[in-house]
């Protein structure tokens, strides 16, 4: 492995892969097109609240999308959006099939967001490669808790999503993970693409101003849940979702060759910063949002 300015590169010949490091030019950011005619994540889909036009809708005292009659059937508190205080509303839990009375019964162990309208979103599919202004196809992968996460649950949550794509063999990837875990930016000084103003990103993650998603892959032995779990154990941060790109679906769609790879998507999961050559442009885009 060669280390030049803290950027890991993958070169593939036949069935073999090689990791090295090099400096590279940066990509560009842009505004994505709006997602037209799509439901907001906070708007309940057609449900048990639907009534004939001439009939008044049933009361929903706490305005959580679950009418008081259904709350009575479930035994939930009609004056509280989240009866068991597990971070998911009673409506979301009823919709997802978890128990709104049991705080240990959560949609996601990691507390990731839930979008009850995700099935109505337009999915472009993985037939074409990703790029600036394109929407991420519907992507599901196993997280550090061994659960399948649907990234379309992050649509409409009011903040951008950051992809941090890398491997266990990438030293700058691990330095970035340590910085995000501890907040100690000094570990990043060894990498040529790092700038002092990027230090604000740790605070943005901790304040939940952005969703940070670390995606691990390997062109050798496929990564799995154990890799995601070990990454989380080694670089703990409860605010960061760690996914295992086991079959390289995301790596191939994003054409990842240089790492760490930092891309930014808006709340509708359109790429607003897409960078084939490294992390600096993506980090610049994120830090400029503060």
3D structure, described in words:
With 290 residues, this protein is an alpha+beta fold. The chain has two domains: 8-28 and 132-287, Glutaredoxin (3-Layer(aba) Sandwich), CATH 3.40.30; 57-117, no CATH class. It contains seven helices and eleven strands. The strands form two sheets. An eight-stranded mixed sheet has the order 3-11-10-6-7-8-4-5, covered by helices on one side. Strands 2-1-9 form a three-stranded antiparallel sheet. Strand 1 and strand 2 (16-21) form a beta hairpin. The longest helix has 12 residues, at 171-182. The radius of gyration is 21 Å and the shape is elongated. The two termini are 35 Å apart.
Number of helices: 7
The residue-averaged pLDDT reads 88
Spatial sequence of strands, sheet with the most strands: 3-11-10-6-7-8-4-5
Instruction: Write down the oligomeric state.
Output: single chain
What number of structural domains do the residues give?
2
CATH topology of the largest domain: Glutaredoxin
Q: What does the overall shape look like? A: elongated
CATH homologous superfamily of the largest domain? Glutaredoxin
Q: Structural class given helices, strands, pairing?
A: alpha+beta
